[in-house]
Hints:
The complex is a heterodimer.
Chain A: E1 14-26, E2 31-43, E3 47-51, H1 58-65, E4 73-77, E5 80-82, H2 93-99, E6 104-107, H3 121-132, H4 137-150, H5 156-159, H6 169-181, E7 187-191, H7 199-216, E8 219-224, H8 227-233, E9 236-241, E10 244-250, H9 251-256, H10 261-268, E11 317-318, E12 324-325, H11 336-339, H12 343-348
Parallel strand pairs in A: 3-8, 3-9, 6-7, 7-8
Antiparallel strand pairs in A: 1-2, 1-4, 1-5, 9-10, 10-12, 11-12
Helix pairs in contact in A: 3-4, 3-6, 4-6, 6-7
Chain B: E1 5-17, E2 24-37, E3 42-46, H1 53-60, E4 68-73, E5 76-77, H2 83-89, E6 93-96, H3 110-120, H4 126-139, H5 156-168, E7 174-178, H6 186-203, E8 206-211, H7 214-220, E9 223-228, E10 231-237, H8 238-243, H9 248-255, E11 283-286, E12 289-291
Parallel strand pairs in B: 3-8, 3-9, 6-7, 7-8
Antiparallel strand pairs in B: 1-2, 1-4, 4-5, 9-10, 10-12, 11-12
Amino acid sequence: MNPIPSERKAYGQPLLRVTGLTTTFHLPKAVVRAVDNVSLELRRGETLGLVGESGSGKSMTAMSILRLVQPPGETIGGPVEFNGRKDLLELSERDMRKIRGAEIALIFQEPMTALNPVFTIGDQIAEAILVHRQASRAAARDRAVELLAAVKIPDAEKRARDYPHQLSGGMRQRVLIAIALACQPLLLIADEPTTALDVTIQAEILDLLREMKQQLDLALLLITHDLGVVAGHADRVAVMYAGRIVEEGPVRRIFAAPAHPYTRGLLASIPGGAPGQRLAAIEGTVPNLAALPPGCAFEPRCPERFWKCPTAPPPAFAIDAGGAARCYLHEPIVDRRSSIVDGRSSTMDAGRWPIDDGQS
Amino acid sequence: MTPVLDVRHLTKQFTRRDGFFGKPAFVRAVNDVSFTVDAGETFGLVGESGSGKTTTGRCILRLIEPTAGEVLFRGENVVSFSREQLRLARRHMQIVFQDPYSSLNPRMRVRAIVEEPLVIHGIGSRGERATRVRELIGLVGLDAAALDRYPHEFSGGQRQRIGVARALALNPSLIIADEPVSALDVSIQAQVVNLLMELQQKLKLAYLFIAHDLRLVEHICRRTAVMYLGRIVEMADTRMLFENPQHPYTRALLSAIPIPDPDRQPHRVALNPKEIHAEGPLREVAAGHWAAI
Lengths: 360, 293
């Protein structure tokens, strides 16, 4: 089994294209933008790693795409184009329900709480099939056993009759993957799928996800805080900070030549180098979303800040080696107007980041 | 050099019953664990959840009573200590917990949290304690203004600094750090790790560093022991352990570390529990390198 996707090939048609997605929370004292003008794109067979620290808005981005944000949260902006549909945000709840689970599946971090303790895992997988597909209960049961075997649960026939508490954390996460894949979705959103698991189990689950993705030609939105996981599994990476995507690009470029000082800081703070040496920490703390600085949200912590940074949130500037960064360091001096990656046109061309920045 | 901590054949057996009338079953959470920590060094204890690393740390402090074995702290066996002796010994060995959200009393101001160990041990006058508390809070890189605030007003990294200040109050020579940064965000982890390394230099502290983040252990620990199912299966200088792991479990564990470089992905060694014998005694496979193979 090759640990790295051997070919970071060019992928097919965009399956998901999110433009200017914004989710706000109306709190008693402030309006907080948990997701702030987020644009991203994902093609069939491709893995996009969405990285960020807690509170950066990465999970909320996934919830917004699936329209699972609860009041006082509200998703505005968009559109969220998916598989030929113009905008998921415009669909009726009934139509949206047909998409969730069937075309877009989600797996969560906690394999302990996501399963129902009073049903066997076989029944829970069959249930996932019956919600979306016409099938007899017996056929769904058979399919459930097949799925359990596909996610490499030994003795699938027998295990299908187990209850969640009889399984280890790694096995439960496999069951959740089986449920997610039950209806052969086109897009799988995996939100910190391995964070609660031990290192060796984490590696097994990630390998399984990769294998399933290849077999089914899935698009995978992999949400994680672990840059190591991203390096091994993503084709492209989007880095979030304070609700905004601050950098995006092909995985090799991100790791070889990170363009945003925040990305550079994250990479530098990973333990490595000479043992005992000071780590390159990012000073300060993550800002409060209710009181963001007027310019770049990272500006107060940024070692490379200059006069322009506090003036206004930076738009996305194209990076020559691929992708884009919201950082004034990358603003071309000659012709500022054309340097701004302008939404759609760039998506069609070489650029892959359809950012249309309303704030710039 | 006499080690500051010398753990010998430490064993903790828990009893569990399947149902009220069920037969009691014994689980050895910690099984015949022996290692030493030298003064001023960082010793890493790694393993997955359930491997017994946290229980080992708590048994050393007798927060959990060990079933068997000896814990020699500066040459004296902590396990045989009376309550009073233990109370005195705990001045010199402190613990920093994983979760900075639940380990600080939310109803106490930071000043009282940091001062409490001094009060409990009856150290100093009121004025002396106040001076010491200000000194401690500066030592961990927080402003004196923090002293009048409550834990909820601080971020995770700052709370962990408060936890460290409290642990340092009595001038310990050993700190048991149980996953001290794993609840923190990546960018904050590095700050706290730097602080721990700085304090070690300044105060000549020894750390028993319990962690599952192997990259971090590789970076800060001079020696490392790997635990599996309650036993130490391998123990060596950290570099030796990472460069030349001997035990199949260590190999699987090291190969599973995600590497933050797309072009240097590890070749993963699958973990086959049937192949792993944790039972064998540790043998010295090279100078200072022990493995249960």
